Automatic annotation (TrEMBL):
Molecular functions (GO terms): N-acetylglucosaminylinositol deacetylase activity; zinc ion binding
Enzyme Commission number, as recorded: 3.5.1.103
Protein name as catalogued: 1D-myo-inositol 2-acetamido-2-deoxy-alpha-D-glucopyranoside deacetylase
Chemical reaction(s) catalysed: 1D-myo-inositol 2-acetamido-2-deoxy-alpha-D-glucopyranoside + H2O = 1D-myo-inositol 2-amino-2-deoxy-alpha-D-glucopyranoside + acetate
Stretches with biased composition (Low complexity): 291-311
Length: 311
């Protein structure tokens, strides 16, 4: 355990591309600073729509070969961000993309959405106990925008954080570890509105403009507790998003998903601290997700199970 980097960040996402859109600048910044950045992606995004016409045959309703292709896109994106540790929950193909809410794929065998949380969570407990992160980033209870796999990723991440700290749970998965700080992805409403105003004034290639509430995690500014300035990593973030070419089209400081509706590409990323002690005075936003976390002790241990980890 002593050979782990001093600062360790874990991100849990539903599909390849979510990490680059939500956290690309944060991941690039902390990787550049020498932190261990670990990404766990819960599915391969097999049900995604495909943007480039030449690749449309990969989609689930044709060749159903999108999963392995997106694994390649993810690997390329991680190279752009400088992130070396990326994993698929339970191994490649263990949990399948459930599609949008209400579609028959929600109930396909192996679909992530219908997998019991306590069946998926131990896979993540093993990662948490191995990597021993100080900080976990995932979605809010609505998965940011209601996609079943995003909601399930939230549930599995929160449950695994709890179980990982419990000395009574599955000693075979490693020594207990309590994650000091847990964040949900957020976008302050004022920032989203400003971004869309910029977009409407810009000359971009997209068919239309998305709505503020299409952006996952938009909340009133007062709910945002941390902002991470990733301006210096803007190029890396855009490159990572471009690597997800089946899913994302990037044009300057804007991007679109398969609906071809433009959205702002944010290089400052925002979070809400939901577990742990804030590293900034009351009323001020944190500028470092590790602020206040005790990064001097890599050991954790059973005593760490007390405190903030309960619900
Ligand atoms: Zn997603």
């Amino acid at each position: 355990m002593t050979d782990l980097p001093a600062r360790r960040l874990l991100l849990v996402h539903a599909h390849p591309d979510d990490e680059s859109i939500n956290n690309g600048a944060t991941m690039a910044r902390y990787a550049a600073e020498g932190a261990l950045v670990t990404l766990v992606t819960c599915t391969l995004g097999e049900e995604g729509e495909v943007i480039p016409p030449a690749l449309r045959h990969l989609a689930a309703d044709e060749d159903d070969a999108l999963g392995p292709h997106r694994a390649g896109e993810l690997a390329a994106a991680m190279q752009e961000l400088g992130v070396l540790d990326h994993r698929l929950l339970g191994g490649a193909g263990r949990f399948r993309d459930s599609g949008m809410m209400g579609v028959p794929q929600n109930h396909r065998p192996g679909a992530f959405w219908t997998t019991p949380v306590d069946e998926a969570a131990p896979h993540l407990v093993e990662v948490i106990r191995g990597v021993r992160p100080h900080v976990l980033i995932t979605y809010d209870p609505h998965g940011g925008y209601g996609h079943p796999d995003h909601i399930q990723a939230h549930r599995v991440a929160m449950r695994a954080a709890e179980l990982a700290a419990d000395p009574a749970f599955r000693g075979d998965l490693g020594a207990p570890h309590r994650i000091a700080k847990i964040y949900w992805n957020r976008v302050p409403r004022s920032v989203a509105e400003e971004g869309f105003a910029r977009l409407r004034a810009a000359d971009v290639e997209f068919a239309g403009v998305a709505a503020v509430d299409d952006v996952p995690g938009v909340v009133d500014d007062s709910e945002v507790t941390a902002e991470i300035d990733g301006t210096r990593h803007a190029v890396a973030k855009a490159a990572a998003m471009r690597a997800h070419a089946t899913q994302i089209a990037v044009d300057g400081t804007f991007f679109a998903l398969s609906n071809d509706l433009g959205q702002p590409l944010f290089t400052t990323e925002y979070y809400q601290l939901v577990r742990g002690v804030p590293g900034a005075p009351a009323g001020e936003r944190e500028r470092d997700l590790f602020a206040g976390a005790d990064t001097g002790d890599a050991a954790g241990g059973p005593a760490a199970a007390a405190g903030e980890t309960g619900r």
